[in-house]
Structure to design on (261 residues):
């Protein structure tokens, strides 16, 4: 799950597939942009926090994003180094030279936190609702808001759990780990996978502790050790929202406009 190209290839023949191309030159990136309807995300194969992720609907912006990646990405080996240096027995696209061109999706975005111990998936009681920066009128692709618990009912979240169990156990065959899965809920109840990582999502231990009193570190240890455990049902005590901001210039944060009380 560390390499987004390999993850996309694993899901390519499933219902959860998102059309994509893996490219290593700008000409191929431009062709992929055209084929996918001129509304895409340009992403690095490794990395976190939406860094170097660009939502592109214009060929000039595509070229700027491509240059930005190649001018800055290779200079951060300690942050973005992957496993391409290992002699793996299969093709492994190098994240220093390849990028993912992925069709843009529109719907309600959520993130699921769960744990896998042997052949069982243990789901946390609520997914996290995710809202992008464009909701504030900021033309950027980073995920600004994470809100727990979700506005979705338990019944609306059940198909998400069922889909993840199929993906994690049958398609990816993960075990003994935690899982952070970002999904897009499309019209017609269709579910698409944006990302799956065998780790805890950012800020999730703090969020679930505040809302439910759960200790995610304990569940992670039990999963890694292959123990059978239960996550006791609890009602949420409060709503928690994490707002993350990546400034384009240095300064001191004073206020955030465009957010209703």
């Amino acid at each position: 799950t560390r390499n987004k190209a390999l993850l996309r290839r694993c899901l390519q023949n499933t219902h959860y597939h998102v059309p994509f191309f893996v490219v290593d030159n700008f000409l191929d990136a431009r062709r992929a942009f055209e084929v996918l309807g001129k509304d895409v995300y340009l992403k690095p194969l490794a990395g976190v926090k939406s860094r170097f992720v660009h939502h592109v609907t214009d060929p000039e912006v595509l070229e700027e994003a491509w240059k930005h990646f190649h001018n800055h990405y290779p200079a951060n080996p300690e942050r973005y180094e992957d496993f391409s240096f290992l002699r793996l027995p299969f093709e492994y696209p190098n994240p220093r030279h390849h990028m993912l061109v992925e069709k843009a999706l529109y719907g309600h975005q959520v993130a699921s936190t769960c744990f896998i111990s042997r052949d069982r998936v243990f789901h946390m009681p609520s997914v996290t609702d995710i809202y992008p920066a464009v909701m504030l009128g900021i033309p950027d692709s980073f995920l600004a808001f994470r809100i727990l618990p979700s506005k979705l009912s338990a019944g609306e979240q059940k198909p998400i759990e069922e889909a993840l169990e199929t993906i994690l156990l049958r398609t990816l065959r993960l075990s003994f780990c935690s899982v952070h899965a970002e999904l897009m809920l499309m019209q017609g109840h269709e579910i698409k996978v944006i990302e799956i990582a065998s780790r805890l999502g950012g800020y999730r231990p703090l969020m679930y502790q505040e809302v439910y009193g759960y200790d995610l570190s304990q569940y992670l240890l039990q999963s890694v050790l292959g123990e059978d455990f239960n996550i006791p049902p609890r009602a949420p005590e409060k709503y928690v929202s994490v707002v993350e901001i990546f400034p384009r210039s240095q300064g001191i944060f004073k206020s955030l406009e465009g957010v209703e009380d």
Q: What stands out?
A: The chain has a mean pLDDT of 88. Residues 206 and 233 are 18 Å apart (CA to CA). The longest strand covers residues 108-117. The two ends are 38 Å apart (CA to CA).
